[in-house]
Specification:
15% strand; 3 domains; two-stranded antiparallel sheet; alpha+beta; single chain; Ribosomal Protein S5, domain 2
Length: 287
């Protein structure tokens, strides 16, 4: 959802600069950060932004650079007031030519000194050119998003594949884990000098190992990863749905960790959690 676009429009009063910025957001939060936009055009602009950008924190800025025809003259009354105030607080003599030139230059930049046409800068006749510039800025922002999206797609899909590879390594350690559990229980019985019935001991061992079985977690995690890839490849705006899938992936990884009872598997689970957290962070920027 992150992006930036800029465009310009030349109108009768001067030049309008359009800038649009988009950041992550769950919905379309649109702010028109300008006083130049005609009130009657605000709904049209909001709809343009909503339709093209769908969601995100979206800010539109309009800047204005006055042309020669936009200046009517100098507001002498305002200029005299500023000059009087400066002389009252100035610590040094401002009568020299250099000081006077600097002072006048500074005062001419003060509000209301140059009597520019601030109201109705964008006239109905100018609006088509401004609307076109807004469209061009949106095009630039969407192009920016598309370039970022390609890199984002490669990153998150690569990490999903990485999680599946880590789980394959977990499977390779399962036999070792079961053997270790059997040996641990056998040593505990030897220390207690207990001689259980072999048949009953085997039944209890099977029951005990079933509590740590992770076959269901393996199946569900693979299904979630497959669904993640289907959604990101097929849906135009998959971001919110991917967030739910990521939650389910995290649930299966956490359950695997709680059942692991094996140092090597626990380490792999930590790595899977790290990969999933990076996917979650990146998914916030997917529409």
């Amino acid at each position: 959802m992150t992006g930036y676009g800029r465009a310009e429009a030349v109108i009768a009063a001067g030049k309008i600069t359009v800038e649009i910025r988009s950041l992550n957001g769950k919905s379309a939060d649109i702010s028109l950060k300008t006083s130049l936009l005609p009130k009657e055009q605000e709904l049209e602009v909001r709809k343009m932004l909503q339709d093209r950008l769908v969601r995100g924190t979206i800010d539109l800025f309009l800047g204005f650079e006055a042309g020669a025809s936009a200046i009517k003259g100098i507001n002498m009354e305002a200029m005299q007031q500023y000059l009087k105030q400066v002389k009252e607080v100035a610590p040094t003599d401002l009568s020299g030519p250099e000081a006077t030139a600097m002072l006048l230059s500074a005062i001419l930049r003060m509000p209301e000194v140059t009597d520019s046409r601030k109201a109705d800068i964008i006239t109905p006749e100018d609006w088509p050119a401004v609307a076109k510039a807004i469209g061009e800025a949106l095009d630039a922002l969407c192009d920016y998003r598309a370039r970022e999206g390609k890199a984002l797609y490669a990153d998150v899909t690569g990490r999903v594949a990485g999680i599946l590879e880590l789980y394959r390594q977990v499977e390779a350690l399962e036999g070792e884990r079961i053997t270790a559990v059997r040996e641990k229980l056998g040593k505990a019985l030897e220390e207690l000098s207990a001689k259980p019935d072999p048949s009953r001991f085997e039944q209890e061992m099977i029951y005990y190992l079933e509590k740590y079985d992770i076959n269901e977690e393996k199946v569900r995690l693979r299904q979630h990863c497959q669904y993640f890839m289907e959604v990101i490849d097929s849906e135009p705006y998959p971001g919110k749905k991917l967030g739910f899938i990521i939650q389910e992936m995290g649930r299966e990884i956490n359950t695997t960790g709680s059942k692991a009872n094996h140092a090597g598997i626990q380490q792999l689970v930590v790595r899977m959690k790290d990969e999933l957290e990076k996917i979650r962070e990146q998914s916030m920027n997917i529409l």
